[in-house]
Amino acid sequence: MVARSSSVLIFLFVFLAISSAFPKNKDKYKPCKHLVLFFHDIIYNGQNAANATSAIVAAPQGSNLTILAPNFHFGNIAVFDDPITLDNNLHSKPIGRAQGMYIYDTKNTFTSWLGFSFSLNSTDYQGTINFIGADPIMIKYRDISVVGGTGDFFMHRGVATIDTDSYEGEVYFRLKVDIKFYECW
Ligand SMILES: *[C@@H]1O[C@H](CO)[C@@H](O)[C@H](O)[C@H]1NC(C)=O
Ligand SMILES: *[C@@H]1O[C@H](CO)[C@@H](O)[C@H](O)[C@H]1NC(C)=O
Ligand SMILES: *[C@@H]1O[C@H](CO)[C@@H](O)[C@H](O)[C@H]1NC(C)=O
């Protein structure tokens, strides 16, 4: 009898240990922090050097660094230094910079690969958030990984849902970034 109740206890203990190590999805997928920010990209087009915030730095053979290449821009790499704002207005006071690159890496549709950081410097947020992932531009909502952070975002991880909030030809686009952290410290 004593042996039996202790084995029940051991079972219960093991069960609790395992279930706390693998929380149910419902709990696991509740964000610990949520942030919505916008960033604005003005692509250099040969005439807007003063205002441009991104530059094509690589182009496939036969194309140049002024105009994105034909065929879904495949082979282009652009580097950007874009203002981040709290709302969708390009002229709002920036709270930081979105800096990094996008690579057009798909031959049969518009898809880019993003690798960039948000460097935030405002009264509410100080620190960086680092993003990586495939960006199938033609789809309304795309998820990319939030792989880490520093400062206020020390060791944070999560997923960011991005959508192209505005698009003006090949010269301006604005991305809305809905950041959900699932790991906060
Ligand atoms: C650059 O931005 C300023 C301020 O928004 C604007 O007045 C000007 O027309 C822009 N210049 C170009 C070349 O887009
Ligand atoms: C770049 O390529 C575009 C499209 O082919 C062309 O119209 C433009 O003149 C080229 N610019 C330069 C500086 O070569
Ligand atoms: C952040 O903003 C403050 C105040 O504008 C400025 O003094 C400081 O140099 C900025 N820090 C960075 C890392 O840009």
UniProtKB/TrEMBL annotation:
GO biological-process terms attached to the record: phenylpropanoid biosynthetic process
Top-level taxon in the UniProt lineage: Eukaryota
Annotated Gene Ontology cellular component terms: apoplast
Signal peptide segment: 1-21
Alphabetical list of InterPro entries matching this protein: Allene_oxi_cyc_Dirigent, Dirigent
Keyword Zinc attributed: no
Gene3D superfamilies found in the cross-reference section: Allene oxide cyclase-like
Cellular location(s): Secreted, Extracellular space, Apoplast
Main location: secreted
Keywords, sorted A to Z: Apoplast, Secreted, Signal
Family: Belongs to the plant dirigent protein family.
Complex formation: Homodimer.
Role, per record: Dirigent proteins impart stereoselectivity on the phenoxy radical-coupling reaction, yielding optically active lignans from two molecules of coniferyl alcohol in the biosynthesis of lignans, flavonolignans, and alkaloids and thus plays a central role in plant secondary metabolism.
Name by which UniProt lists this protein: Dirigent protein
Lineage: Eukaryota, Viridiplantae, Streptophyta, Embryophyta, Tracheophyta
